[in-house]
Amino acid sequence: MSQQLHCVVEGCDASITEETEEEVLEAAEEHAAEAHPDLELDEETVETIKQHIEEA
Q: Could you give the 3-state DSSP secondary structure of residue 16?
């Protein structure tokens, strides 16, 4: 089953759907670099992202 993440940044309606959590995290990193360059992907932010990944 696919994994899905809706961007955790308030006001951003981006959605990522991939086959695995690892692929979602990689795509989220790319999205953050392009759409939210000021966002620091520290451990706390990555944990928040992981908590928002759900089955699609």
A: strand
End-to-end CA distance of the chain: 7
DSSP string of 1-56, one letter each residue:
--EEEE--STT---EEEESSHHHHHHHHHHHHHHH-TT----HHHHHHHHHH-EE-
pLDDT in tens, 1-56: 899 999 999 999 999 999 999 999 999 999 999 999 999 999 999 999 999 999 99
Where is 24: in which H helix or E strand?
Answer: helix 21-35
- Residue ranges per domain, the chain? 3-55
